[in-house]
Specification:
heterodimer; A: 162 residues; mainly alpha; Helicase, Ruva Protein, domain 3; 3 domains; 6 helices; elongated; B: 676 residues; alpha+beta; Four Helix Bundle (Hemerythrin (Met), subunit A); 6-stranded antiparallel β-sheet; 4-stranded antiparallel β-sheet; flat
């Protein structure tokens, strides 16, 4: 029994002596700074205002970059690392708000703005065309001018503006 | 003593601004000439009074009176004289005073030059400018006073106060904490005054617009009277933005010039609406169109100027809590709200009188193109506004802090910028009034065909991102159409007048400065666009820890770490510098010295890149870190920014174009002489 215990203890010593350095050696050289920065540039410093993690000069951010290196070495994906940071330090570390709750506004409003702009443009021009007020003779009025006429008119405009 | 004089002058100024407002309103309503004259003199007096107050503050800054809070916080003994003067706008209190001084100066110029000419509008201009001045003076006097002093109380507590409290003695620090090191750069020295000149410059056309609305003068006079002001304000605002970008590129060590930071965007938003306004006013000038648009755009620009100052000065970006704790935040908020509601109310009141007789007849006419231009600028502005205020709203309503980063702006506003480039490309060849897609196509196809050379060349050189290729084509389209139209006009004139081409070029350019100034601005913007495309789509970067003599490879360049030096400098810095050799195909191109400057007085570090710049690309190298004991290894980061230089070249071209458009025409000079 005593001999068995001794064997287990010596095996454990051998494991802890060799296993830890081997893991460290695996992490450090295999994950390059470029791989770390690729993830870090998608995250924001939780402490400084509006500073991406890859360029933040503080010591805290240097440690967070090392944390990213460790996670990459452990085989974590970019999404997993981002989720981990968001859970640890809050949603403000993500470069864009996650798709939840009030954050939908950020994703929905820009296309709505564009659609609204197109609608406005079409409406204004259409309404304006309908309510054309009779005015002085315009050289561009129907029939549609031939290209040469257009060119001549542009040239005329140029001279007028001179 | 000097501080007391400076403070006393501020008190007199706030009183005179109030007198100017009251007497102007009373003078107009009662038609009393003497009251109007009193109002004019009161408004005029603000500029000399504030000039003397500013001179008092500069004297304190230069003489190192560190017992004054502002002097202590923004200067130190080791700072050179020019930075001590720049400290005037380097801190909150000084910059607000500087803002007031510029506004009083602009009002002074308008009143001196235009009092007789615009006598019906100017009393209301006085009212608007002096209400604004009064508001800012309240902030300066009661919330952000630059003449506060340090006192030591009997119990040892250090307090700040304007007047000496009972049983307190003045504190005499031997040195100040110095200006924020990040601000000790030529770009940052010049950037705030430029930005403020732009901000304040837009207040004059706004004041004229409000005056015209109140007086019921809904013709073009207010617009024509302030055309030059608007263009000047736009020029300064543009310069401020470009200089700020240069500062970011040179000092922040991020490898770029623009990070869609809320502070940047708060200056960019009035630029967007101001640019829309500049284009829109051309339509009112030439066709009598867009009268509602112009008033609305200048109101929006004014409100955004105040909003931009509010956002950067209220602490709102730090958090909602900082805003509620900020003394000036709520005051700003109320002022913007009141000015916006009153201005909008006036616009709605005069809405029917602003209607235009001229109508847009075609989707492809030049008038329509200007309408699309306005809508595009406003859409980009709306996206920027959403990006800036959403984190604030989120924290306010849900308690969650979020970041809206560059990806949002680039994906939402990027396609709109592309459409703007497309419009810029085709508008010079669109016809006024009636036009069709067919006619437009027939005039544009030649330069459009030539412009295809650029994207084809990009693909041959290895560009595979189709969005980038389209963007290059759009920038090229602007360049080709502008040059095509310019060259065609020169050719026409040379043929008709039997002139050599250079003479035709000079005559055309000098006789129609507004048109060709605009063309040159468009060329500049297209060149800037190439720089933006280069860095946005083709930037490459790498980082590694290198031992002495080791190298990094980046897009064909070899970056070798050769030496490391660290030393203290006489101006209070600790400079850590590496020597980096940049080579290509085993041939050394340049040696650069990226460094990290640590400022002892403010305990802050600044990363200064080493830069090799050519028309093709920039190689931007920074020192990230180094082995502290042996200094044998250092972490080096390098960026390759293709076409970056074209951004700066384009901005210079655009400035030249604006100056050309601003230059008075011969007729105007003659009129001025005759009037004199």
């Amino acid at each position: 029994m005593r001999g068995k215990n001794l064997l287990i203890i010596s095996m454990a010593i051998v494991f802890f002596c060799f296993a830890t350095p081997v893991r460290a050696q695996e992490i450090t050289p295999t994950v390059s700074d470029d791989e770390v920065n690729r993830v870090a540039q998608e995250l924001y410093c939780p402490v400084c205002e509006n500073t991406p993690l890859d360029v933040c000069p503080t010591k805290a951010c240097a440690q967070w970059r090392e944390l990213i290196r460790e996670k990459i070495a452990l085989g974590w994906s970019e999404q997993q690392i981002k989720r981990f940071f968001a859970e640890q330090y809050g949603g403000q570390v993500l470069a864009v708000p996650p798709l939840q709750g009030l954050n939908w506004i950020v994703y929905v409003l820009p296309p709505l703005v564009v659609i609204g702009g197109i609608y406005l443009a079409v409406t204004i021009v259409k309404r304006s065309r309908k309510s054309v007020i009779p005015e002085k003779k315009d050289p561009f009025q129907s029939p549609l001018p031939a290209p040469e006429t257009v060119m001549k008119q542009i040239e005329k405009d140029l001279h007028k503006e001179e | 003593m000097i501080a007391n004089i400076g403070f006393g002058l501020l008190v007199i100024t706030i009183v005179t601004s109030l007198i100017a407002v009251i007497t102007a309103i009373y003078g107009v309503t009662s038609k009393t000439r003497a009251m109007l004259e009193t109002s004019r003199l009161a408004a005029l007096s603000a500029f000399p009074l504030l000039s003397m107050s500013i001179a008092a503050l500069i004297t304190l800054l230069l003489s190192g009176k560190f017992e004054y809070v502002y002097v202590y916080q923004t200067t130190s003994l080791s700072m050179p004289v020019y930075l001590k003067i720049a400290a005037l706008w380097g801190g909150q209190q000084g910059s607000l005073l500087f803002w007031c001084w510029l506004l009083s100066g602009f009002t002074f110029i308008v009143l001196i030059r235009k009092w007789k000419q615009d006598h019906d509008l100017l009393p209301w201009v006085i009212v608007v400018t002096n209400i604004t001045l009064f508001f800012f003076m309240v902030l300066v006097l009661f919330f952000e006073n630059p003449f506060l002093k340090y006192y030591i109380m009997y119990n040892g507590e250090v307090i700040t106060s304007l007047f000496q409290p009972f049983h307190a003695i003045t504190a005499h620090p031997t040195d100040g904490s110095g200006l924020n090191p990040l601000l000790r750069h030529y770009g940052m020295v010049v950037h705030p005054p430029m930005l403020y000149l732009g901000f304040v410059g837009f207040i004059i056309p706004f004041a004229y617009a409000i005056a015209a609305l109140i007086e019921g003068r809904t013709d073009d006079r207010w617009l024509k009277a302030t055309r030059r002001w608007s263009l000047t304000a736009w020029l300064f605002l543009s310069l401020g933005l470009v200089l700020g970008s240069r500062w970011a590129y040179d000092v922040l060590g991020w490898g770029g010039y623009w990070s869609w930071d809320p502070v940047e965007i708060s200056a960019f938003m009035p630029w967007l609406t101001g640019t829309a306004y500049l284009h829109s006013m051309v339509m009112q000038d030439k066709r009598g169109l867009f009268k509602h648009w112009n008033v609305a755009l200048i109101i929006l620009t004014f409100c955004l100027v105040i909003f931009g100052t509010f956002l950067t000065r209220s602490g709102l970006f730090s958090s909602v809590h900082a805003f509620s704790e900020s003394q000036i935040g709520p005051a700003f908020f109320i002022f913007i709200a009141v000015m916006f509601v009153v201005s909008l109310g006036l616009l709605l009141f005069r809405w029917s009188r602003l209607s235009s007789g001229y109508q847009i007849k075609s989707f492809f006419s030049r008038e329509s193109a200007f309408l699309y231009n306005n809508l595009l600028f406003l859409a980009i502005f709306a996206i920027c506004l959403l990006g800036v205020i959403f984190p604030i709203l989120s924290e306010l309503f849900t308690g969650q802090q979020v970041t809206v980063g560059p990806q949002f702006y680039e994906s939402a506003a990027g396609p709109l910028f592309a459409l703007l480039l497309l419009l810029m490309g085709i508008v010079p060849l669109t016809a006024w009034s009636t036009s069709s897609a067919r006619n437009l196509g027939k005039t544009v196809w030649k330069p459009a065909l030539i412009s295809l050379i650029f994207p084809i060349a990009a693909v041959i050189l290895g560009a595979r991102n189709w969005i980038a290729v389209i963007a290059i084509w759009l920038a090229a389209l602007v360049i080709c159409v502008t040059l095509y139209d310019y060259i065609r006009s020169i050719g026409l004139r040379a043929a008709n007048h039997h002139e050599p081409w250079w003479k035709a070029f000079l005559t055309l350019t000098t006789r129609n400065r507004r048109r060709y100034g605009g063309y040159i601005i468009h060329l500049g913007v297209a060149l800037m666009g190439l720089g933006i495309i280069g860095i946005e789509f083709f930037q490459t970067q790498t980082q590694a820890m290198l031992k002495l003599g080791e190298s990094l490879d980046l897009s064909g360049y070899t970056i070798t770490y050769r030496d490391f030096q660290i030393a203290d400098t006489p101006d209070g810095r600790n400079v850590a510098r590496v020597e980096i050799s940049i080579a290509r195909n085993n041939q050394e191109l340049k040696v650069v010295y990226p460094r990290i400057d640590y400022y002892y007085d403010s305990e802050q570090a600044v990363t200064i890149p080493g830069l090799r710049t050519t028309l093709a690309d920039d190689l931007y190298v920074i020192l990230v870190d180094w082995e502290p004991v042996t200094s044998e290894a250092a972490t080096i980061k390098a960026f390759r920014n293709p076409l970056m230089n074209w951004f700066w070249i384009g901005s210079i071209v655009a400035v030249f174009g604006t100056l050309l458009a601003l230059w008075p025409s011969r007729e105007r000079k003659l009129n001025t002489k005759e009037a004199a």
